[in-house]
Amino acid sequence: MADIARIPLPIIEDWEWQHQGACRALPSEMFFHPDGERGPRRRNRENAAKAVCASCPVLEKCRQHALAAQEPYGIWGGLSEDDRAAILSKHAAKKLFDAS
Prior knowledge:
It contains four helices and no strands. By secondary structure, it is mainly α. It has a domain at 32-99. The longest helix is centred in the last third of the chain and has 19 residues, at 81-99. The model has no long low-confidence stretch (mean pLDDT 88).
């Protein structure tokens, strides 16, 4: 079961940015991989999705949401699952280092 504690409360102002996303009218399959997708096919789909994100007016808001909510799947704010995991891991390591 998904941990929803990180997801912001359902306040319209907190989610309204999604209506301005460049991805809004595109198929979700472009941003979320099908089961078993690997290799060049996955890379090509991710690159196409990231290209959409690159010109998106709400890229930063989307990226902030994805990192704060630790979105487990898909391209969000121009970041793949692996990109987000690396950023979050680096951030966690920095916190540990700074606490020492």
